[in-house]
Design goal:
about 20% strand; 3-stranded antiparallel beta sheet; 8-stranded parallel barrel; about 350 residues; TIM Barrel; alpha/beta
Length: about 350
Amino acid sequence: MKLPQFAGTILIAFTTVALFANCTSSTTQKDGKTKMTLNATGDSSKVAITDTTRKPIDTAKYNALMLKLAHGDTTGKWPVKPQPYPLPGAILPFKRIVAYYGNIYSKRMGVLGEFAPKVMLSKLDAEVKKWEKADPSTPVQPALHYIAVVAQGDGGKDGKYRFRMPDKQIDSVLAISRMRKDMIVFLDIQVSLSDIRTELPLLEKYLKMPNVHLGIDPEFSMKNGVKPGKKIGTYDAADINYCSQYLANLVKKYNLPPKVFTVHRFTNRMVTNYKNIKLRPEVQLVMHMDGWGEPELKKGTYRHFIYSEPVEFTGFKLFYKNDIKKAPNRMMTPDELMKLTPIPVYIQYQ
């Protein structure tokens, strides 16, 4: 696996992206029941959050939707029991998240950075429409899933083989998200030879925003000192619990709606001791199948590592390029994913 080389190079983002980050005027955006105001410089770290009353969730509807996602499973695995009801303002399972993934420094890391913002968003709009057609009863929540800490092939000054995106780039992604009503943003962390307890707190000023959520990637969590890309990394339930507790603390401190928390997975060892993962009302945890390949391979990966080790919600990644390399040389469709057990409620395109 070839990793990007960020350290020691001059990084030039799209001109249009920089323009969005630097020219944002005083803006007010409503995100559900929460109002968020940006300062005149577009610095999203200085956000005033004014909370208004959120209605309690409809537990009967929640139960019915969870049964729908279980898709007739008779093994007792799905829906997961017991699990807490989420706090008011929860996205899942009331909506399906459809996200574009990547990094605006690289055209090779995903569709988010491959195209100029307006083109990229128009492509995302098209995918949203496909999902609305495939499952008309479930509203679609569009999202941008941005890799904020990137595993790289260069050790950097501290030898940790990861590059932290500068705040201006994260601000740019937030600015792009405001081009669509109520779009949410995920910040993804690839710790490499660093660790999640070091990297996660550095993103707190963004994660305390009501529209910003979290993703972590065990593939690049190299606990044995091996350089990223040489082998697949791992997270334990203790690491996942640390993250969810951190998010829960932010939700309680800033009176936020629940955070969505995605964990990438496509092998058994990427997540260990899954039965010890703790569920919380403040956090909605998605185990996200992000392996690539032909449809039968992807379905098998989902069955072995997501279905068989239930946590709470499930996700599924589709690759515009890697999924079509082998016969039948096509991506899976929304209609096909709606036939999976459980039905994924988070869909990511790379």
